[in-house]
Amino acid sequence: MPAALADVERIYxxxxxxxxxxxxxxxxxxxxxxxxxxxxxxxxxxxLQSFRGDSPLEAxxxxxxxxxxxxxxxxxxxxxxxxxxxxxxxxxxVDGSVTAAVAALxxxxxxxxxxxxxxxxxxxxxxxxxxxxxxxxxxxLHAARTALQxxxxxxxxx
Amino acid sequence: MNVxxxxxxxxxxxxxxxxxxxxxxxxxxxxxxxxxxxxxAIAVVTTVVATPALGLRGLIANLVGRIDLSFSSGxxxxxxxxxxxYDLDLGVPPSMAQDAVVSQARRVATFTVRGRRHxxxxxxxxxxxYCWEISGAFGGCRARAKERLGRLSVSYVNSxxxxxxxxxxxEGDITAPSAHSLTLEYADGSRSAVPFYFVSKxxxxxxxxxxxxxxxDTAGTRLAAAVLRDSSGHLLARTKIAYxxxxxxxxRRAQVQATLKRLRRHHALHRYASPALPPxxxxxxxxxxxxxxxxxxxxxVVVFDLVDASPAVRNLIAGNADYDCFKRLPYHDGPVSLxxxxxxxxxxxxxxxGKLSPPFLGxxxxxxxxxxxxxxxxxxxxxxxxxxxxxxxxxxxxATARDLALFVRSRTMHAxxxxxxxxLDRSIRxxxxxxxxxxxxxxxxxxxxxxxxxxxxxxTTFVERxxxxxxxxVRFVGGRLAGQNVEPYxxxx
Lengths: 158, 493
Prior knowledge:
The complex is a heterodimer. Chain A has seven helices and no strands. By secondary structure, chain A is an all-alpha fold. The longest helix of chain A has 25 residues, at 3-27. Chain B has a five-stranded mixed sheet with strand order 1-11-12-8-7, covered by helices on one side. A five-stranded antiparallel sheet of chain B has the order 2-3-4-5-6, with no helix packed on it. Chain B has a five-stranded mixed sheet with strand order 23-24-25-26-27, covered by helices on one side. In chain B, strand 11 (196-199) and strand 12 form a beta hairpin. The two termini of chain B are 34 Å apart. The radius of gyration of chain B is 28 Å and the shape is globular. The model of chain B is unreliable at 27-63 (pLDDT under 50).
């Protein structure tokens, strides 16, 4: 077995719950999350030859999982109704105000938050996964936390 | 709510995700013989898993006794079932929590018992066990791996016909992995097989729910035991059914009556003294209303200081009252409240732990006086203390929902709501004058604080709008409750 494939297997086995959690958060589809991770890893193994090794393997895998989850979200999004309201993501049993507050964040902030909180990635790994600089990650996370806290407070006041 | 709590609530963690690496990594090409065997196995498994529950699957279960089901192939449980599993731990000390992994709750099979379909829901627990629920029947938990002992657990309710005890149905779980057949044995020596579903890991247990066949309802024919065997016919477990003699049954009924009488007396006269608890610890939440001050500690200890309670409040909570706090929880539409009865004192203490631990949206004291419409406190609790801004609209909306629920379930309305047409109008006008408004349609709403109603044919809809703008309704068709949105704030029956 090539060394890289063993590394992919090690990351898959050690991070599976976190991978599913991030996939669920990004896609808004908890039930599909294990399948999203599965498809992402099938793709990663198939394209392992194209991995150039100029970034950590784990960050490359996270990038594929995040992109797969984003694609799933796009492909499953129902048409906007006549009311013009954006459908709310189907998180199992989530307080609607929390879902709305998280959904109101800009996408980059949202993804950075998910990778930090659900995958426990450090700034460097988040930067690699989202293809942004490590300095930007810190600022993005700070902005995300502040915005989310404000949105949640506003929701409680409303 | 802080950011960390919000993110926990947004996407709860995954536990026991199935490792499917074998499906990801390139596999060794199978030989023809192995491929044929694998194809055969897949065909059988697909048939069992994919056919509608209790269609072909039920037929197979009857033939072979045990049917293996894949946990991961089960459909996600709806929110109502997840809430059931989640609520198992509400108000429970952490050491006694079942810790069901609610997000993983799944529908795995159905049982048909006397023509009624019952769904089997299961969820793994964080400590290697499982919880299950059968709709319209029972359920339970073996929350820890070590509770998987015993191999066979049978629940049954004794029925009584002509003074003879018998069992009409059995339900239970099987923890022996090698279980192959479950048989019911009767007092007359006859037997019948009970099919059961064995759900794969992380559940790793079997479940059954079946009616006892007709003709087993006398002392000489009734169910005597449930017997579990492996594929070699070796005995794994045997559960004997216990029956009472008529004398024992009469004695038990008398004991139950005496206990109920004692409890009623106890509830009316008992003083619910505050237990000795440690002081609240920082960080605190504090608030007050009606002269009552509340301090909530991070350790879950809540102190209600009643020294300066207003005379009106003292009048409402004299004697015993319910002391509660509430917060938002996953799987619940509205805030969830939990507390304890306590007797009036200068300082009243309660402790809330587990899932219902601080921080809270608010706390309250609810008087135990009989509530009638219109309620003397405007359907508000005797003391309502907002610890966060979100508590205020909750109190306001709940008061409106309670007002409407109290109105429709009042004794007078029980009779009036069965009426239709002009007779209904006359009766409402005769009893309530202009306090209850007739609306042009069910979509119309009266001004806040007023109840209105609209009728079309045999349908009558009662409506009340909260000062927050939220509208509550209760609808009756032919006098029967047909729809409402006052729950979970209040109950219209």
